[in-house]
Design goal:
- There is one protein chain.
- The protein contains 31 helices and 13 strands.
- By secondary structure, it is α/β, with parallel strands linked by helices.
- The strands form three sheets. Strands 3, 4, 7, 8, 9, 10, 11, 12 and 13 form a nine-stranded mixed β-sheet that branches. A two-stranded antiparallel ribbon has the order 1-2.
- Strand 8, helix 23 and strand 9 form a beta-alpha-beta unit.
- Helix 12 runs parallel beside helix 20.
- The longest helix is centred in the first third of the chain and has 31 residues.
- It is elongated.
- It starts with a helix and ends with a helix.
Length: 741
Amino acid sequence: MRRVFQKVYHFLPVQLLLLHFRKYQLMLLFWLILFLTLSGNFATTFGAASLFLAPEYLGSINMMSMLLLGAATAIFIMSWNITTFIIHSQRIPFLGATRHSFLKYCINNAFLPIIYLIFYSTVCTHYLWVNEHTPITRILLLQAGFYLGATVVLFISFVYFFRVDKDLFKIVLSRITNPSLIREIVPYDSLDEESDIIRADTFISNRFAINKVKDLKAYHPRLMNIVLRMHHRNAITATFFSLLLLIALGMFVDQPRLRIPAGASFLILFSVIMGLVGAVKYFLKTWELMGWIIIGSIISLLVKYSLFSIGSTAFGLDYEQARPAYQYDSLRKMITTEACQQDIHFEQQRLDNWLLNNTDSVQSKPTLVVLATSGGGSRSAYWTFRSLQYLDSISQGKLFKSTVLLTGASGGMIGATYWHGLHTESLKGSLSHPYAYRYQENIGKDLLNAIIFSFASLDIISPFNKIAISGKSYNRDRGYAMEQELIRNTEGILDKRLGDDAPLILQGLIPNIIINGTIINDGRNLMMSSQPLRYLMSPLSARVDSATPPIDAIDFGALYRKQQPMRLLLTTALRMNATFPYILPAVKLPSVPEIDVMDAGLRDNFGVELLSRYLLVHKEWMQQHVGNIIFLQIRDTKENEVFPFSEEKSLGSLLTAPLFVIQNKWEPFQSYTQGYIKDLLPLINKQIHMVTLTYIPRVADKSASLNFHITQREKEDLYKSIYNPQNQTQVQHFLELLNQP
């Protein structure tokens, strides 16, 4: 048994695996991330697993998408082999004395890649069967496409290395007679002696036979290095080629046929990063840490002095005009009594117009609807759109006609704005059937693929890759990619500017939209609308009673009145409203000092605060002119059961819980607090009635994921949730209030 154990232990594949764990554990981090991602234990909230398990090409999971993912997987595997070969080849000099040394290294280093491929195929097959409802025959076809792509890339890679591969005798033996030449090429250095040579008695040959390692005493280690260095140069060339490929793909991001699946682009990015790490380790050796510090310092200086900009911009906004001051004194001047009264009067003129369009002989006072929708990525967008289409259809269009204002956060606002756009186009006569099912399918289309593909490719060159909009130049980044994909998905309905529908809104023919964002510099709410909103910038009571009232919201149009705010792209406003950290870049707005805007859900994930203030300001007008006021809230999570109870059962949870308690429970904290607000609203105005539609999954622990991609199973679950008894009760209550004389 001891002899058997020693043979296994000194088998080259075993020694290489142990070497990876013993010397460079950080290099294994790439594999760990992939395994955790596929198993659903890493970046689950972002929907990372779907990028690999359900890759999309031209909007669908098909043979080409799997082939491209397989090719990218092979590139990553080759990068793993190349990088570790560069780092470890000094410790396995006997490979330099064999023909096709790199091929033999790849074969003996294949343990992790093989385990990964087996794991991937198993998890992918299960995912496609359960979540995408893919037939088994099609799954097998997709898997065949994956391995076809991987095989092609591996074949091309090894043909390249075969072409440059030479054995020791052809390259080195002829130079032994000329020591001075050898000394000139490979000068003597104290680091030439490698004391950490691993012992391997056997290895797998290129014919998959187990061979014994030859005695290397006849060859000086420096002679072996000549062959190895040749491989190093070619390995670095391959890494550089991967980087160029990624940059080229980013430059042509607007061409759908050149946009590979996001999972594939991420694997190529991993390959480039791994190659760069290997190059730094190889060239700098013991100076590696200092090298990374210098590289980081240089990048930091470039960013600090704006020589290398990594910030995203608001498309359509004029950044060349004089920037407004973002200070309390300047903001206070915006909310003078006269200014707020002027905006209130302007809004009540709009409400008067709405009243004329909604008054009939049946209802002496019409029912007014305000709408708040929650954040939640594509899940919330799909559920919000489904709920609004359903209510509007069964009310014969009265929901859209009765609604005066809609607001909310993140994905819910995307769904609500798309619904608003469809019915606006129908009112204009440019769209005949706004209830067609294809619109529901549109809002469920993937956005994550375009975002992550751009993150992995386009963002590398975004400071140097510009896009012109209305004669102004902006960085083309993953924010731009997300907006373009959203426009394509919605058939151009959202391809408009913030102020395009202002005349119809002012006439009271369509609801007003307030798209929010969170100013992460100070936590204020940024309100983007075609209508003036200065009266909503501070609490009403504080503005009346205090000379220095707190300002907790900003009217985008008022602050940036010189920057042509109404020319802001509607998709950019929606992107700012749905800028989930890291997935989308924070948007930098031109003020002094500059402000950064992110997801509206950071401040108010349900839209309740803003609508409550709106109803309070216009309380007297509504008491005089309308009957019922329906506060319609559409949520993608249960109000009283937002997150499961968490227990601190491990040392890790005990240590991290205090640090992340607010982050992990941010949504329920908001929900509980806003419950008090909704309790008080009917007391302030008895006309107000709460109606809440909630996404309730058929299986409690099988809720749709929170990201910009939803599976076929999740779409079916979201679509049918409107028929849940709890929601049907709310639907009936809504119809009774809407039609009550």
